[in-house]
Design a protein that fits this description.
CATH architecture of the largest domain: 3-Layer(aba) Sandwich
Largest sheet: 6 strands, parallel
Low-confidence stretches: none
Helix content: 25-40%
Distance between the termini: 14 Å
Strand order of the largest sheet: 2-1-3-4-5-6
Strand content: 15-25%
Shape: globular
CATH superfamily of the largest domain: Glycogen Phosphorylase B
CATH class of the largest domain: Alpha Beta
Radius of gyration: 21 Å
CATH topology of the largest domain: Rossmann fold
Structural class: alpha/beta
Number of domains: 2
Oligomer: single chain
Number of helices: 14
């Protein structure tokens, strides 16, 4: 039987760990001898208590049941999905290494001294989730044929349109009236996410549409940064916008959520907005679309691989490169225009029912892992 050892992180909600666990849940359904070797977290303060992965007990049990590799095993494939990227010292026929190049560079992402050997080793394949991210590895010298794009996915059993009663209950718990239009953003409140642009656009639009609200779900358990930190940073520069009233209108979530709760949070809002500057893939807009939300995202980046007119409005952007880092800057006027289209109901191409089916069929974790398996075991 073909054998695969996955070396990575489990138990926490960090993005590499979540990708690993979603893929593992699909890999166990394939006819292979599957083993998992847990790697130390990149940041020692990460732990399952503060930053739980959010899986239900049944899925956690399935993940925990994957055995460690037995001593002396020489598997057909080793698949590494942790950080920094490790390309050396593998006891297998082939090595696959997952990595992302959010800013189209892998400088500083590879374990010291291992890049040159990896560039020459024909048995090493890089796995990355988007064409945008692939360019960072190709730019570093990897043969494009050895950089495999495997998109991330959505589990429709977890992320789907919510029960109307639960949605109404969740909105009441958040303090949202039914006549209010809630914009949502989920994830780390780091600069590459463009949350500062979102807040400025929201502040300006709220002057025209007082029914507009903003919901920010941070990842402060992982990265120790909240939406309040961004507001505090913006306030000295835009005191006309960052007022006490504006601050009071924004709903902040910092607590860790179970995945089913996260799905309900998506479905309880009215639109998902991500004016990102740099992403390796950007899963939350896809999860939001699976829950029936229209999304507004930056055009020209990693999300170009999956956005579809049935759920997405894209924001014009310009690309800039400084110090070998390439990012995008969304046009704030166009960002405001796209949000306005949704608030005013002027986006007739948005089709929630079609979008939910499209995401489930085209971007499931099952489909992603089938592509990964075909490359690992041709």
């Amino acid at each position: 039987m073909r054998s695969l050892v996955v070396e990575g992180w489990r138990g926490i909600s960090q993005s590499y760990a979540m990708v690993n666990q979603y893929q593992l849940l699909e890999l166990i359904t394939h006819d292979i001898a599957l083993f998992h070797a847990d790697r130390p977290y990149y940041i020692s303060g990460w732990n399952a208590e503060r930053t739980s992965d959010g899986f239900d007990p049944e899925r956690r049990a399935r993940l925990a049941a994957i055995p460690p590799p037995p001593p002396g095993l020489k598997p057909d494939v080793i698949y590494r999905i942790d950080y920094p990227l490790r390309f050396a010292d593998y006891a297998s026929k082939r090595l696959f290494v997952f990595g992302t190049s959010e800013q189209r560079t892998i400088e500083g992402k590879v374990t010291e001294g291992q890049l040159e050997g990896a560039l020459r080793d024909p048995n090493v394949t890089v796995v990355t989730p988007s064409e945008w991210s692939k360019e960072g590895f190709v730019g570093a010298g990897f043969d494009p044929a050895r950089v495999l794009v495997v998109p991330h996915g959505v589990n429709p059993a977890i992320f789907g349109p919510p029960d109307p009663g639960l949605r109404a209950q969740m909105r009441r718990a958040m303090g949202l009236r039914e006549d209010e239009f809630a914009l949502l953003s989920v994830g780390a409140m780091t600069d590459n996410k463009g949350i500062d642009l979102l807040i400025i656009a929201y502040a300006l639009l709220r002057q025209r549409y007082p029914q507009l609200r903003l919901v920010l779900k941070d990842a402060s358990g992982l990265y120790a940064k909240t939406g309040v930190d961004i507001l505090d940073k913006l306030a000295p520069h835009r005191p006309d916008l960052i007022t006490a009233e504006l601050r009071a209108s924004i709903i902040h979530f910092s607590m860790n959520l179970e995945l089913m709760q996260l799905g309900l949070l998506y479905g309880s809002c009215d639109a998902y907005v991500s004016p990102y500057r740099a992403e390796g893939f950007n899963v939350p807009p896809l999860e939001a679309a699976a829950c029936g939300l229209p999304v507004v995202v930056t055009k020209g980046g990693s999300t170009d691989d999956y956005v579809h007119p049935s759920f997405a409005l894209t924001v014009a952007s310009h690309r800039f490169t400084t110090d070998n880092i390439t990012m995008l800057e969304a046009d704030i006027e166009d960002l405001m225009d796209k949000i306005t289209m949704l608030v005013e109901g002027r986006a007739p191409h948005i089709d929630k029912s079609f979008a939910v089916r499209y995401v489930a069929n085209a971007f499931s974790w099952a489909a992603a892992v089938r592509k990964l398996m075909a490359a690992m075991f041709p």
